[in-house]
Amino acid sequence: MFSELLLDDPLFDAIEHLGFTEMTEVQQAAMPLALEGRDLIVNARTGSGKTLAYVIPMLQQILDNPQTVSQALILAPTRELCRQINKQCNLLAKFTEISSTVIIGGEDPRYQIKALQTFPDIIVATPGRLLEHVKREVIDLDAINILVIDEADRMLEMGFIDDVISIATQCSDECQTLLFSASFNQKKFQELTDAVLYEAETIIVDSSRDSSENIHQQKLLADDSEHKIKLCAHLIAAGDHTKTIIFANKKDTVNTIAAGLQSNGIDSVTIHSDFDQNMRNQLLRKFRLGETKVLVATDVASRGLDISDLDLIINFDVPKNGDDYLHRIGRTGRMHETGDAITLVNANEWNRMISIENYLGIESTEIKIDSLVARYTGPEHRKSSGKSYGVKHKKLKKVKKKAGKKAKNRLRDRKNIGKRRKPSEKKTEIET
Questions:
Q1: Which of 164, 173, 340, 431 is most buried when burial is the number of CB atoms within 10 A of its CB?
Q2: CATH of the domain at 328
Q3: How crowded is residue 127: how many other Cβ atoms within 10 Å of its Cβ?
Q4: pLDDT above 50: residue 158
Q5: Distances (CA, A) of 75 to 133, 198, 298
Q6: Structural element, H or E, at residue 14
């Protein structure tokens, strides 16, 4: 219960107003330690309630120690996630005077400069844009005493770690640092943890790999893209799902899927890297409000999207790796709700799908749609791992020709051309 925490009344009022009663597992584990000012490494899946796990302690510490300068900083990898975190900050600070602002790319920096000059209590930012303001001396970070690094695994994947370290080292020497990640590899994170954390407590709860019990994971065999589009159309039309996201690996595929669904009478919105922030916001708003039930996107949308009533994920393409698979399907089955995740698998994708399942320790159920059964029925011969046997052609080794001894081209030899060589005198050893 939130009532077990030592929080001021305005925070309790906001929590009650938002309808939160019971704490999630990650909140129970992280919030007491965060309130004590401890550095934390928290490994918890997307949708486990981790945002509240750091926002509530942050707000309480600001209430305990109000200042006239910005003192809390939240770093997130994407603009969408920054906006959602800031929304949560505002909702939870509803009955306080605590202020927050968003600093992200794609927006007019002049307005951001004005916002920073008002010294908001909390700054929610992407690393790149924040560093730009720091370098221009718009803001000084030495008063920041609470730093949250959210989606740290994504930060690593996107190449933001150097920026994050640069920002962290400019914060207060007494800064409390909280690192949250859906997956955590100690070796990969070593540089970051060594640079920004001090005697950190590690919390692993509701891990992405262990939290799929609320998600019905299935795979559906397919022949080609055209067949996959027909399968998507059937799954959407025949099911009673409220909202659906279809994930593809490439933006061109996203456009192809949307056109194919349209030809089947299914309206959808699309999101990929070609859209600017304003356009993304408009499209996401349309999807959130239920004006369309289908969103087709690349992995740009697989993180940081908090969408209610999302109960079907379709992987049009098998994701590149297990972590990407987790981030995709983690959009559904949130907060103890149930959801479906269906991956369409063709012959070229079978081995990658099996590798993901083995990596995560899962086995998705293979299903069929009677009217759209694929010609591809899976590999005829399988290894013990589940992968198909492939015909491997041995490479022919190139036989290197032995090089003959190179003749020495010595000056003395050139001088003696045509002349007979005098026999050398033999030396005789005399035994004594």
A1: 164
A2: 3.40.50.300
A3: 24
A4: yes
A5: 14, 18, 22
A6: helix 9-17
Q: Which amino acid is at 388?
A: S
Q: Are strands 146-149 and 243-247 parallel, antiparallel or unpaired?
A: unpaired
Max distance between CA atoms of the chain, in angstroms, equals 115
Is residue 414 included in any domain, yes or no?
Answer: no
Provide the pLDDT confidence category of residue 206 given band limits of 50, 70 and 90: low
Under DSSP, is residue 359 helix (H, G, I), strand (E, B) or coil?
helix
For the chain, the average pLDDT equals: 84
Closest C-alpha among 88, 81, 63, 321 to residue 183: 321
Contact 146, 71 (CB under 8 A): yes
Is 92 part of any domain? Answer: yes
Q: Is residue 379 part of a domain?
A: no
Q: What local confidence, expressed as pLDDT, does residue 428 receive?
A: 42
Beta carbons of 105 and 129 less than 8 angstroms apart: yes
What span, in angstroms and rounded, lies between the C-alpha atoms of 105 and 129?
Answer: 6
Range of the domain at 114: 2-208
Helix H segments across 170-321? 186-196, 225-238, 251-263, 277-288
Q: Which amino acid is at 360?
A: L
Residue 49, by phi and psi: left (phi above 0), alpha (psi -120 to 50) or beta? left
